[in-house]
Design a protein that fits this description.
The chain has 8 helices and 2 strands; from the N terminus they run ββαααααααα. The chain has 190 residues and is mainly alpha-helical.
Length: 190
């Protein structure tokens, strides 16, 4: 996500700091939960707390930015993966990234609910963006003849969401991979 303050783009070093803060915060929220000390995030990023607050004036602003950044990474990855891999492998790799995305989102769940309760809707674009990414991957797979052409993107997204409910914890990553392989087998063109 590009950082723009007012009409002026961010300096390159400020953008790097912001990007690193988002990366470190995403990991911290996923492993320690949304109440991790902001000072810890700043320290682990290698910046001062003032730098964190310049980019994210509140914990809520950081939580929302992390969520939106992770969503953008997930959705933008579809086109990148298709440029690098055959369509069916791009889809399977994207599914792994979806599981990782959900792990981060779980760490933010309470904070995201609090944001939603306060009137901010961090989820406004989520479903549409994910459906567009899945659709892109499915269409490419169908055109390549490696993925069934009769699959609805919403069904794949629902399947992935259900899969993460039963095997979405980090300790269940091996089981999640096996379940993703089963789902992928069902999506392959016969």
């Amino acid at each position: 996500m590009s950082g723009v303050t007012g009409a002026r783009p961010m300096r390159a070093d400020a953008q790097r700091n912001r990007d690193r803060l988002l990366d470190v915060a995403a990991r911290a929220f996923a492993t320690e939960g949304p109440e991790v000390a902001l000072e810890t995030i700043a320290k682990d990023t290698g910046v001062g707390i003032g730098t964190l607050y310049r980019h994210f004036p509140t914990r809520d602003a950081l939580v929302e930015a992390v969520y939106r950044n992770e969503l953008a990474r997930l959705c933008d990855a579809a086109a990148d993966l298709l440029a690098e891999l055959p369509a069916d492998k791009a889809l399977r790799t994207w599914m792994d990234r979806f599981v990782d995305y959900i792990a981060t989102k779980r760490g933010l769940a309470d904070a995201l609910r609090a944001l939603a309760a306060s009137g901010t809707n961090p989820f406004a674009e989520s479903r549409a963006r994910m459906l567009a990414a899945v659709s892109l991957l499915l269409t490419a797979g169908a055109e390549a003849g490696t993925v069934r052409a009769d699959v609805e993107p919403a069904d794949v997204l629902a399947s992935l969401s259900g899969l993460t409910l039963v095997a979405g914890e980090p300790a269940q990553r091996e089981q999640a991979a096996r379940l993703l392989d089963l789902l992928m087998d069902g999506l392959r063109a016969r």
